[in-house]
Amino acid sequence: MLKFSLTFFFCSFREKFQPYSSTEIKAPSSPLALKLAAHLCSVGAKMYGAFWCSHCLEQKEMLGQEAANMLDYGECYLDGFKIGTPLSQECKEVKIRGFPMWVISMTSGRSFGC
Predict the structure, then answer these.
(1) Does residue 88 contact residue 74 with C-beta atoms inside 8 Å?
(2) Torsion sign over Cα 100, 43, 72, 93
């Protein structure tokens, strides 16, 4: 019975429209997290996610507020979400397979705005 209840909750949760809301990162960044974010930025890494994705939020929280703000981030549902909502054009082009998804270009000689 618990399995049915959780399945019902999950399905009904996704059927209702969820307007986009930005996530607030509260954790402070450690010196190591700041170094990691700077490195990811320098190699052209970009994180793709969804505002409703708990794993995306967990990764940002692990990095902390300052480091998370350094990252290049692509939101795949800026107009909100419910079942059937298409990905943003950028996320379609990148061929997102799940959230979060990191794309690291490793292109040398480019400036990534870090």
Answers:
(1) yes
(2) negative
